[in-house]
Structure formats: C-alpha cells, structure tokens
C-alpha cells in the first residue's frame, strides 16, 4: 500500500497514541479511503502503541510520516491489502461490483452471489480486517480472507476478473464509515454486503448454533446429569501458556509477537498480548529506565502473563527484558501456571539500529537517552532460550510459524 510521505523533521511536540480502531481508520484514510482525523487540538503527531510516529494531523488534514508496521497472516499480504487509491486507479472505467465479505457466507449467500455480481467487468471482494481480535466464536480476518479466496475462484470467468481486497476496518467506532462510501472509494460502481442477502431460515439456524450442543445434552441426559455435564464443560480448560519474547529494540520481537497473538486468537486460543511499549503506558506508567525500574517492569509483565496462563489462556509478552535475573523470575511464575516458552529474537544490533523506526538509537548515540539497551546499557544474551530467531534472516511469517510450532508441541506434549 503506497502512502504519501511527510518529512520526519520538526514533528509537532504534542503526540497522541492511537487505539487499534483509530489505527485502522488512519490507515484507511491515508490509502485513499474516507477521510478521518482525530478529535482534539492540532497540530499533533499520531503514533502507534510503540510510539512510532505515523502521521501528522493539523489544519490541512492528516499526512503520513512513516509506513505502518505489518504483521503476518493472509490479511497482511501486500498483494491483498491494497490502498483505495491504487485499486481505484486500476479499475477506472470498468463496471465494478464490490461485495463485502464480513461474515463467513452460508450456502444461500454463495448461491445468490453470481446474480449479485452479474454483468460486472470486475468484482472486488472486500474483506474487513481489524487490528483488534474478533469476538469469541467469530471468524476473524485471516479466515475471511481464505473464504473470500474460495469465493473468487468460483466467480472468475474469462470475462470477469475477481480480486480479494483487504480493507483496514475498525472493530467498533462511531467514526466508522459506511460500506457504500468505502466501496466507492475503491472504485466500485455498485456494492452489496453479502450477509444482508442471507435468507431468514439461515439467519435462524446461524442464531441457534450456540444452543445446539446444550439441546443435545438436555435430550441425552436426565436433568440433574445434564446440569453437571454443562457445568463441567464450562469449567474445562486446557493448560495455559506464556510465550515470552526478548531482544533489542528494533529486533522485530513486537512485530512477531503481535502476529503470533493474532494467529493464535484466530485459531481459538484465548490470547492476550502484553507488548513492552503498551505495558509502559498502563501497567508500568511512571517507571524509569534504570535497572531497578526495568526489572520491576519485566516482573509485572511476568506476573500478569502467569495469571492469564493460570486461567487457561495464552499470554504473549514482548519486552526487551535485558537482564537474565528478570527473565528467570518470569519463567518461575509462568512455569507454576502452565507452559513457558522463551524466544530470543537475536537480530544483530547493527540491523536493529538501521531500522530505528522511533529514532531511539540515534538519540542514544548522541547521549540523549541514558542507559539505552545495546548502547549504554548491557543486554544479557539468554543462555536458556527455547527458540532463537534472527528476523534479519527469516521473515515474519516464518518466525511466527517457528514459534507456533514450538508452542503447540509444548501444549500437546
């Protein structure tokens, strides 16, 4: 997705950390979708949770500063996550039907789809992708992309080209635009939301899915037994886990952790992401960056992660965690609660410094940031890592696959 550039020098001193929904709105707007700007005073530098400046909002609107960080999964594939400006330029002059695939379609919707797109030169299957995890039981963006790809295969003809297009989409926001407006920005001359063409019988059957198991239990068991079977099922849980990433700033640990958490959540593993920068904003707000404060920050992350694991969830944490003593305490807490996996993201310092999305290494080299890990404060390389990954040698998708395989092997074992 090509976004307009804006000089990174002389950025407004005032900053605002955007929520996941606001990041989706910003990405959509900067790529040519409906306009969006944050509420509040301007000028302001808009950042993600890692304090990376992404855009500047002022009286003239919103302008990009740096590209958005990407994660893994089919909904992050650049070939699918194309900006509205790029898609609109490509389809200009064609009869374009846009179909919004926001839910897994039923057979009845698949049946009517050819009629909904009849006569179109181009069909765009628009898949909404939120940075927030989907509601429990809902099919997330990765699954919807796979479904849309199957739909596209069934719709393509010699006369009609069909493309799957991933659209940044806030899970819930009063500023969320309407699909008709979004589709028009992508170049559509007509648009439909596929789920709105679900017939009533299917709506009722989908609505009843959650009660089917309980109904079968009630039919199979007498009432006292049924009550106990349902109670046992509600309290049953698998062992929880903590996946703990450690590595230098810019090593790629947050990117891999974020992608892993999204994939695990999409697979039904209740996953909580505890990223270093986000934790600093909330759980450890007010702590400094001296050794004692850093150790306390890591210990707090480890404690919360172990609570998640103790209730059967998966906690994915990604602080720098430079000291072996702090990591050892995290391991102790986590192993008492469930499975623990220590992942050392071993990307070399020179690569991390070259990435320098937040400009921190440059400031540390100038002496503006004291006790900066890797420059003026040591990083104690783990000798007990369960997995070592160098993101200068493997891409995000491969890194996620390695961590996921190691985690599943531990959980299954």
Beta percentage is 15-25%
Using DSSP, what is the number of strands? Answer: 13
How does the overall form come out from the CA principal axes?
globular
Based on helices, strands and strand pairing, what is the structural class? alpha/beta
**How far is the N terminus from the C terminus?**
41 Å
Strand order of the biggest β-sheet:
10-11-9-12-13
Number of helices: 14
For this entry, what is the oligomeric state of its chains? single chain
Q: Taking Cα atoms only, what radius of gyration do you get, to the nearest Å?
A: 24 Å
Task: Report mean pLDDT, rounded to a whole number.
Answer: 88
Task: Determine the fraction of residues in helical runs and give it as a percent range.
Answer: 40-55%
- Report low-confidence residues grouped into runs of 5 or more: none
Pathway: Sulfur metabolism; hydrogen sulfide biosynthesis; sulfite from sulfate: step 2/3
Binding site for ATP: 247-254
InterPro entries: APS (IPR002891), APS_kinase_dom (IPR059117), P-loop_NTPase (IPR027417), Sulf_AdTrans/APS_kinase (IPR050512)
Family: Belongs to the APS kinase family.
């Amino acid at each position: 997705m090509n976004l307009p550039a804006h000089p990174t020098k002389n950025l407004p001193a005032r900053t605002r950390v955007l929520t996941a929904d606001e990041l989706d709105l910003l990405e959509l707007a900067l790529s040519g979708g409906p306009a969006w700007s944050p509420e509040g005073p301007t000028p302001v530098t808009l950042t993600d949770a890692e304090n990376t400046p992404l855009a500047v909002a002022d009286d003239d609107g919103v302008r990009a500063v740096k590209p958005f960080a990407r994660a893994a999964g089919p909904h992050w594939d650049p070939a699918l996550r194309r900006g509205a400006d790029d898609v609109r330029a490509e389809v200009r002059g064609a009869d374009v039907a846009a179909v919004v695939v926001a839910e897994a379609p039923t057979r009845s919707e698949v049946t009517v789809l050819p009629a909904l797109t009849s006569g179109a030169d181009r069909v765009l299957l628009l898949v909404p992708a939120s940075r927030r995890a989907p509601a429990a039981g809902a099919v997330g963006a990765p699954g919807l992309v796979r479904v849309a790809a199957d739909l596209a295969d069934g719709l393509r003809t010699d006369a009609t080209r069909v493309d799957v297009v991933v659209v940044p989409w806030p899970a819930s926001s009063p500023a969320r635009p309407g699909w008709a407006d979004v589709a028009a920005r992508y170049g559509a001359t007509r648009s439909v939301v596929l789920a709105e063409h679900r017939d009533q019988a299917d709506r009722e059957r989908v609505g009843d899915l959650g009660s089917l198991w309980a109904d079968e239990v009630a039919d199979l068991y007498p009432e006292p037994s049924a009550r106990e079977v349902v109670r046992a099922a509600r309290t049953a849980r698998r062992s929880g886990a903590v996946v703990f990433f450690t590595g230098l700033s810019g090593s790629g640990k947050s990117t891999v952790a974020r992608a892993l958490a999204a994939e695990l959540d999409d697979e039904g593993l209740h996953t909580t992401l505890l990223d270093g920068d986000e934790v600093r904003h909330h759980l450890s707000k007010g702590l400094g960056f001296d050794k004692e404060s850093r150790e306390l920050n890591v210990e707090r992350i480890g404690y919360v992660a172990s609570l998640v694991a103790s209730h059967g969830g998966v906690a994915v944490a990604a602080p720098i965690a430079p000291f072996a003593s702090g990591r050892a305490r995290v391991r102790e807490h986590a192993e008492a609660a469930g499975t623990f996996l220590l992942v050392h993201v071993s990307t070399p310092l020179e690569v991390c410094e070259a990435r320098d999305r937040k400009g921190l290494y440059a400031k540390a080299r100038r002496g503006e940031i004291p006790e900066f890990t890797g420059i003026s404060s040591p990083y104690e390389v783990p000798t007990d890592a369960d997995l070592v990954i160098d993101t200068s040698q493997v891409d995000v998708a491969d890194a996620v696959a390695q961590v996921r395989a190691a985690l599943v092997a531990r959980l299954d074992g």
